[in-house]
Amino acid sequence: MQTGAINTPRVATSSAFSVESRNGRPDFELAAALQKVSPQQQSKAQKTATDFEAMFLNSMFSQMTSGLKGEGPFGDTPGTGVWRSMLTEQYSKTFANAGGVGVATEVYRTLILQQAKTIRTA
Predict the structure, then answer these.
(1) SS3 call for 25
(2) Distances from the Cα of 23 to the Cαs of 20, 26, 30, 97, in angstroms?
(3) What's the mean pLDDT in 80-107?
């Protein structure tokens, strides 16, 4: 028996930062702003938005694991807190880079719209 992969179309750009991300409809305001903002500024805004979401998720994951005590993957040693914080940091970065929860998309949109307004008025 032969197994095959499901053929799904691949998108060239990151789906988290696509122009068609506002409630499933094209975001014409963002599309117009992207025409005014340079590709270097767009990539910097993407990185900033993703880093912000990772920071948000790190805070959320830290709160989620703050009550863990005693037995577990790290045991109950003095270094447990350090290792747990490093683990939650990596979880948050991985989660944000994989698409996150949508915070980065809105931050990216806001950054691009603000940069486009600055360019228009200058």
Answers:
(1) strand
(2) 8, 8, 13, 21
(3) 87
